[in-house]
Amino acid sequence: MKISEAYDRVKDIDWETSYITEEQKTVETTKFHLDGVKPNDPFKTFVREYCEQELEKDDRHYALLEAASRLNTGEPDGRWMEGMKFGLSNLVGVEYAAARAMGRMARTVAPVELRQGYMMQMLDEMRHSNLEMNVIRHHMRSWKDPVGFDVAAKAGACSVGSGIFRSMVEDLITSDPVETSIGLQVFVETAYTNLFFVGLSAHASAHGDDMLASTLLTIQSDEARHMANGWATLSTLMQDDRNIPLIQDAMDKWSWRIHTSFGMGNMLFGDYFVRQRTESAKEMTMRWVFDDFYGGFYQKLEKFGIKPPPHLDDMISDLDWMSHSAAIYIFGAWPTFFHRYDGLNDDDFEWFEKKYPGFYEHFGPFWEAYNICKDPEEGRLILKEMGGLPNFCQVCQRPTIFPRPDITKERARKFGDQTFIFCSDGCESIFTKEPHHYVGYKNFYDLYEGMELSEVIKTLGFVRDDGNTLMAQPELEPKRMWTLDDIRSVDYVVQRPPVPPIKP
Ligand SMILES: [Fe+2]
Ligand SMILES: [Fe+2]
Ligand SMILES: [Zn+2]
């Protein structure tokens, strides 16, 4: 029997229930129209083949790790390793959410050809989450300062910077299940994962983190399947004209949503947690995302009536300043994190100025001040010197300093009797379409306003075993580490900044 025949036969095993109706079976519904469409089968794989393939990949990957940990190939770079405490704590949560999202889609989307693909992807995403958790556990055992890796899962759920990824993931798994496919499979996976898993893997390898390099590559080998799922969902939806405006809405939203989360994370990790530099994060993003995805994949959708996303120009011009603005936030708020930082030096300044002309004029003063404030003996905290944190965007949970603090697009508007703040046109328009989806999210000020900073750090649990030394440190090899006592003596109380002018 030919494989395609066998595959069709397997699909025939799908059954309709006699004991409950279709409606009763569907716990969640979708606004998209999927009756009467003929899905293109994204890939014809049997579960047995799938398991064999994945087992082989896992065998190869774990054998390599075993060898690497025995050979002890030298110490990885500290700047990179510490940054990955933040990176992996978020990534593992994104993968797990992707698995949940696929389960929802398999339950909601009727055509069996698509469900089969979603189920396989659900297994892949569980695998990714496990693989990344294994990296965290490996580093917990072998990195010279394991503190921070040991709280990764908890930190991803409560740290202020993780709000950027957490809010995106929560949005993704609570949206219409088919919209989730567009957000996850079209934007996260088709547009950004090459940049993330291939680009970041090259950085990991250049910084001696073989464990992560191998992990990211074996993850990326599954992504082609997820991109195929995205295309299968889109091309199936496009068979019914009533879906076109719904697809357009989802594309408009998720292009911006993923730019502000995954896109920003890529820029930050690629520019600020590396020491061996070749391409800038902006150059990599232009190549992988804007040339390949928007210039290739996305353009092909135009013949079906899909228009380019409304904020495409902003997305491109943001790349000039996005990593730098993100960095002054993440580095400026260092005591509220769980890893060590490495401030910029003269080599970094020179490279940044070459890759991002005007960098020093706009961001140099922050970094000079950062370096002065590193030593706890000086009694100066960069967070207080910069006047505290900015407001946060109710949609993307980024601080409202984008594209650059002096030309921020921050704005506020009323909804009911509450006032909400946004970072950009993109986020404001997302909120306006579905305000109820975003009103409940509690930002840093909702949680900690009026608290003295050492109390915030204690509440977050980011303190070492002695109960006084902070997990986070503003440099890699400090003469003395910052403690809660040092923070207390700076006397910084969390204060909400003024609300920007309210739009009528
Ligand atoms: Fe994944
Ligand atoms: Fe994936
Ligand atoms: Zn925003």
Written account of the structure:
The chain is mostly helical. It has 20 helices and three strands. A hairpin with a 2-residue loop joins β1 (411-415) and β2 (418-422). The longest helix is centred in the first third of the chain and has 31 residues, at 78-108. It starts with a helix and ends with a strand. The protein binds fe (ii) ion (2 copies) and zinc ion (ZN). Zinc ion binds at residues 260, 393, 395-396, 398, 422-424, 427. This is Toluene-4-monooxygenase system protein A.
Distance between the termini: 68 Å
Q: Which stretches are low in confidence, meaning pLDDT under 50 for 5 or more residues running?
A: none
Structural class: mainly alpha
Strand order of the largest sheet: 2-1-3
In helices, the fraction of residues equals 55-70%
Evaluate the radius of gyration: 23 Å
Number of H- or I-type helical stretches: 20
What hetero molecules are bound to the protein chains?
fe (ii) ion, zinc ion
Classify the beta-strand content into a percent band. Answer: under 5%
Order of helices and strands: HHHHHHHHHHHHHHHHEEHHHHE
Shape, per Cα inertia axes: globular
Average pLDDT = 92
Number of strands: 3
Major pleated sheet: 3 strands, mixed
What tags apply to this protein structure?
504 residues; mainly alpha; three-stranded mixed sheet; 3 strands; binds zinc ion; Ferritin-like_SF; RNR-like; monooxygenase
List the helices and strands and how they pair.
Blueprint: H1 3-12, H2 22-25, H3 47-71, H4 78-108, H5 112-142, H6 152-158, H7 163-174, H8 177-206, H9 210-237, H10 244-272, H11 281-300, H12 312-318, H13 322-332, H14 346-355, H15 359-372, H16 382-385, E1 411-415, E2 418-422, H17 425-433, H18 444-448, H19 453-460, H20 484-490, E3 502-503
Parallel strand pairs: 1-3
Antiparallel strand pairs: 1-2
Helix pairs in contact: 3-9, 4-5, 4-6, 4-7, 4-8, 5-9, 8-9, 8-10, 8-11, 10-13, 13-15, 19-20
